[in-house]
Amino acid sequence: MIEDGPGEAAWNMGVDEAIAEACRREHVPPTLRFYTWRQPALTIGYFQKWDRDINHSLCEKEGTPVVRRITGGRGVIHGDDLTYCVSAGARVAELPNTIRETYLAISRAIVHGLRQLGVHADTASVSSRNSASSPVCFLSVGQQEVVCEGRKIIGSAQRRWRDGMLQQGSVLLCNNPEAYHRFFHSPDRRHPDQIAQDFRERIAGLDEFIPARVLPQTIADRIANGFEQVLGITLKRGELTTTEHRRAEELAFRKYAAVSWNRFRVA
User: Fold this and answer.
1) Which of 61, 69, 141, 156 is nearest to 107 (CA)?
2) Are 13 and 67 in contact (CB under 8 A)?
3) Predicted pLDDT of residue 134
4) Which residues are catalytic?
5) Tens-place pLDDT, residues 26-40
6) pTM surpassing 0.85?
């Protein structure tokens, strides 16, 4: 397990991919990483359209970075969240070898951890899609995603290769529907107040279920314990290897800070 402090958007994505590469090559064991963000930032899914989905002029005006993930899914605003990443090679007995089953195993681990904090979290039994095809991750609930009282509290996306997998997820600490309305384009033509109310009914931050004094590190530790209990593993605290750190710097600068990748998905 690696617990990082706040990082720049490009750096955070570079680290996740560097760890995934190391896991796939079996240079490091399967890794659970937690981190936060130095400033508010947007990440968009691998297949999303920059011009269609993002209010990039506002992002540029306010200095809000937008970074494309290598995982799928939809857009997330980071800053009021705790982000996690799970990376593993192909031969990991504790994790299934399909997207859906791995997703479910990770969700169960997170649910177990959140319940230690008194959060009555569970996995969604059915999928529900936003009728307006919103570019926002939290408005779409996939089967087995983590919800609390019927509202989505964690957004996750996964990428698989023949030799391993990477799952990234955002644990929402505070729900800010107005920010999503400002930074993402939506085909929803209702009044902004109606859209914001829809966000409040569908999405929740953990601050609605736990005391504000609970720190992100405490949440991370409880989720980590959930992984240990549900998957039957023992996590060892660690840090990036020299090779991972060097690779993360390269990816952050050459890929995740590059217009060619973020706007057009050109490696």
Assistant:
1) 156
2) yes
3) 79
4) 137
5) 999 999 999 999 999
6) yes
